[in-house]
Automatic annotation (TrEMBL):
Domain of life: Bacteria
Every DUF4131 domain range: 87-136
CDD domains the UniProt entry points to: ComA-like_MBL-fold
Transmembrane residue ranges: 7-29, 190-209, 215-232, 244-272, 278-298, 310-330, 342-363, 397-416, 425-442
Gene3D superfamilies (UniProt xref): Ribonuclease Z/Hydroxyacylglutathione hydrolase-like
All copies of domain ComEC/Rec2-related protein, residue ranges: 167-418
Protein name, entry field: Competence factor comEC
Entry annotated with the keyword DNA repair: no
Pfam families: Competence (PF03772), DUF4131 (PF13567), Lactamase_B (PF00753)
Organism annotation: Thermus thermophilus (strain ATCC BAA-163 / DSM 7039 / HB27)
InterPro entries in the record: ComA-like_MBL, ComEC_N, Competence_DNA_uptake, DUF4131, Metallo-B-lactamas, RibonucZ/Hydroxyglut_hydro
Gene: comE
PANTHER family given in the database record: DNA INTERNALIZATION/COMPETENCE PROTEIN COMEC/REC2, RECOMBINATION PROTEIN 2
Annotated membrane topology: Multi-pass membrane protein
């Protein structure tokens, strides 16, 4: 390793291993790097570990009552000496409030692909949530930045203003409609302030202050804290500012600019020393991986001069970033845009003009607006077009999957730097890919009860075919879609709505918008003009109204409808009773059926039972439990005024030896029946 890399890379690698090991102890295997990086690695590791152990983020007093006047900024406030996220519906805009509530721990992830509030808050230096029971607005907060924001938006249409605010200040609050387009186009990183924005700012300052000689570097350095205060200290902006600051300081002192890899390592060390928990932030991870990809790929390329070299360099830069980010994007979002390299190549000239013009607007107001408006609209148009492109879809990736991916990338990097013949590199890269394919070969036979609060949503993977039974309430539809993506479900062979209660079918509207469906099975109680039936027809999905005796082959399993035999006019009593036969086990799903129906079901022993009506006293009778003898009892339940699940039902299940799993306590629950080869 070259000496210029040693301290930067060593400090950064040591800090990374220490911070990572705090949350995943297996990361301490990275201590194997110590013989190669020696003192720098040991120093980075020791300082960050000591920072975390001796100055940990303190825990708030859980359950403590809080009442008083508080300033809320960006959703956070300070109470009892702790930074807390304010939980309130609707979310509170910035301002002063008289708040009353209690301090509670944040919620971890409860569904595959779900939001991990605990990790998100930790990455921002917070450990607790203030659950506000009342919030009385008292007035706005004084904000010295408001004048800059007004000048930035002056003379622009609403759409253009929102784009420019995102590009220059990282403010995505007004982009509710456009931001998903940027994500699906692979352009969302443009709205995360990073090296591009800092580079433009520093470049203009250094060029404009050229007559001042070396002092221009120091003056440019002074602009970085100002920009951090103006835009907010996002992880990517802090990283870019640290890297630029180190280079500017080196130039001012006559030491030369820091190399990209060395500056990246030093910035990583400093950020993790300040707050090791920052490692958990998605923005932090994406920012460092993107720059690492650029730093390791671009210097190894021999690009021709002129426009052709610029074009090839843009494509190479986009591909390098995508290569390093791909598994993380698939893991967190379930998809990666295949047109992202082309979209970024076309967007880069627009952004290269919009960012400096945006900086000018901060001071000149409406004067540059005639130039900014068409550029911003052009970027929006490009995002909309690219968002329609094909997507690579994938499920959640386990740590071994990440390890295999980057192990496969490593030989290619060696070949790119001419340290390994390409033929050997391709052979070595194919080995982790082969191991990954073999590991994914056996398809799971399992049943997932997803956490949708007070409602039901169950996914059955039956060895080559997936079945979704119900989808919770309408507001839970996005959570169901994210879970399907995380579990690698690209299409549903069968979608089932057990009965027309909103806590069972409401989320299915969102599902059918996002996921292809082969066949929909509706309970006979759904009328022809029901909104769900109409939505399915509008999507071209065949609809079958099933009754007792219906049998469908799905993958390597079978779905049998046991009930209803005839219609009574009662939605719960006319709901579907389903027996899912996985070949290596069976599951009985009872919707909201009452006990008088349970007694008439032609069913024997099963491995899993979806308890009727969220554990209501009206179902799960002694007769049913004696016949089915379930190993696992699943209860989909959330906060409710009905007393679900009823203590008598829980007592009966325990007496019959069933393991009780409930979504309000366990989050999403998985029952594994085996694997299909």
């Amino acid at each position: 390793m070259r000496p210029s890399w040693t301290w930067g890379v060593g400090l950064g690698a040591g800090a990374l291993v220490a911070a990572w090991g705090l949350f995943a102890p297996w990361a301490f295997l990275g201590l194997g790097l110590l013989p190669f990086l020696r003192l720098p690695f040991a120093l980075g590791f020791g300082l960050v570990l000591a920072r975390a152990l001796f100055f940990p983020l303190p825990e708030p007093p859980w359950g403590a009552a809080v009442e008083g006047v508080f300033a809320v900024r960006g959703g956070f406030t300070r109470a009892e000496g702790h930074l807390l996220w304010v939980s309130h519906y609707p979310p509170l805009p910035d301002g002063r409030y008289r708040l009353r509530g209690r301090i509670a721990p944040p919620q971890g992830r409860t569904n595959p692909g779900g939001f991990d509030q605990r990790a998100w808050l930790l990455s921002r230096g917070a450990k607790g949530v203030l659950r506000a029971e009342s919030a009385e607005p008292l007035g706005p907060l004084p904000d010295w930045r408001e004048g800059f924001r007004e000048r930035l938006g002056a003379g622009l249409s609403l759409e253009a203003r929102e784009v420019v605010e995102g590009l220059v200040l990282g403010d995505k609050g007004g982009l509710e409609t456009a931001y998903p387009l940027f994500q699906r186009a692979g352009l969302a990183h443009l709205l995360a302030l990073s090296g591009l924005h800092v580079g433009v700012l520093v470049g203009f300052a250094v060029l404009g202050l050229y007559p001042l000689g070396r002092w221009r570097y120091l003056l440019a350095l002074a602009l970085l804290p100002f920009y951090l205060l103006l835009a907010g200290p996002s992880p990517s902006l802090v990283r870019a500012s640290l890297m630029a600051g180190l280079s500017l300081l080196g130039l001012f002192l006559g030491l030369g600019g820091a190399g990209v890899v060395q500056a990246l390592g030093l910035a990583l060390f400093l950020q993790l020393l300040l707050r090791p928990e920052a490692l958990l932030g998605l923005g932090f991870q994406l920012s460092y991986l993107a720059v690492l990809g650029l730093a390791l790929v671009l210097p190894a390329l021999r690009l021709p001069p002129g426009p052709r070299g610029y074009l090839l360099g843009g494509v190479a830069a986009s591909l390098a970033v995508q290569a390093f980010l791909l598994p993380l994007l698939l893991h967190r979002f379930g998809f990666a845009p295949l047109l992202a390299p082309l979209a970024n190549l076309l967007a880069l000239p627009l952004v290269a003009l919009l960012v400096p013009l945006g900086f000018l607007k901060l001071f000149l107001g409406a004067l540059p607006a005639p130039l900014v408006e068409p550029l911003a609209r052009g970027l929006l148009l490009l995002a909309g077009l690219a968002a329609q492109g094909p997507l690579l879809r994938w499920g959640e990736i386990a740590p071994p999957g990440f390890a295999l991916y980057y192990l496969g990338l490593l030989p290619l990097l060696f070949a790119l730097h001419r340290r390994l013949p390409w033929r050997r590199a391709l052979l070595l890269a194919s080995l982790p890919a082969l191991v990954g394919l073999l590991a994914a070969w056996p398809k799971p036979l399992d049943l997932w009860m997803l956490d949708v609060g007070q409602g039901d949503a169950l996914l059955a993977r039956m060895g080559g075919g997936e079945v979704l039974v119900d989808g919770g309430r309408a507001e839970k539809g996005e959570a169901v879609v994210r879970a399907l993506r995380a579990l690698g479900v690209e299409a549903l062979e069968l979608l089932v709505a057990t009965h027309p209660d909103a806590d069972h079918y409401g989320g299915l509207f969102r599902v059918i918008e996002e996921v292809p469906v082969g066949l929909a099975l509706l309970a006979p109680g759904f009328p022809e003009d029901h909104p769900l039936a109409e939505a399915l027809r509008a999507r071209g999905v065949p609809v079958v109204r099933a009754g007792a005796g219906t049998r469908l082959k799905v993958g390597q399993g079978e779905v049998r409808v046991l009930w209803p035999e005839a219609l009574s006019g009662d939605d719960n009593q006319d709901g579907l009773a389903l027996l899912l036969d996985f070949g290596r086990g069976r599951a009985l799903l009872l919707a909201d059926l009452p006990r008088e129906v349970e007694a008439r079901l032609p069913v024997g022993e099963v491995e899993a039972l979806k308890v009727s009506h969220h554990g209501s006293q009206s179902g799960t009778s002694e007769v049913l439990l004696e016949r089915t003898r379930p190993r696992v009892a699943l209860i989909g339940v959330g906060p409710n005024p009905f007393g679900h699940p009823h203590p008598e039902v829980l007592e009966r299940l325990e007496r019959h030896g069933a393991e009780i799993r409930r979504t309000d306590q366990d989050g999403a629950v998985r029952v594994l029946f085996g694997y299909a080869w």
